[in-house]
Amino acid sequence: MRGTVSGTFFVLKIWRCVTISAKELYINDDIRAKEVRMLDENNGQLGIMSLNDAKTYAYDRGLDLVLIAPTATPPVCRAMDYGKYRYEQDKKEKEAKKKQQVVEIKEVQLSCRIDTHDFETKAGHAIKFLTEGNKVRVKLKFKGREIAHQELGREMLEKFAEACSEVGTVDKKPVLEGKQLTMFMAPVTPGKEAK
Fold this sequence. Notes:
Elements lengths: L34 E5 L5 E6 H10 L3 E6 L6 E5 L1 H18 L5 E7 L4 H16 L3 E7 L8 H14 L4 E10 L2 E8 L8
Parallel strand pairs: 1-4, 5-6
Antiparallel strand pairs: 1-2, 3-4, 6-8, 7-8
């Protein structure tokens, strides 16, 4: 049996809002307050005024009204050139990213019965990674019943740390995780000597 559905349809009006973060601020018509504490373009106090008066003040000077402290009572707004402000913020972020150094974690794997030449090769790789400014994760895998002799693994990692001591220090002491010992080494920073 078929029936008809009759009901009321609701129309939702969605306001255009910009989320408040370091990058995005509420500007001009997005501000929803009756009164605001107003600052001029030079951060001078203009006092508390209605939102319309604040918009008029900003528009008369060819500026935008920007909500800079939404949680204050009343909210604080400032008249500024928003495009110029965003440009300067983006420029500062790019400069900060350029100065920021990315540290990668490289990995070297050992075993308890590693041969001398293989050990020297792995130590050479670790030294290369450390001189490039990267951290090194050194993993020593136990095979079969070697897990019963963890002291041999710890001695091997100590020997490895000693081989790399000119360019790196032990950042995190060896820790047993399952059937492997893991140790982290960090590059020696200028002015600090390896332990």
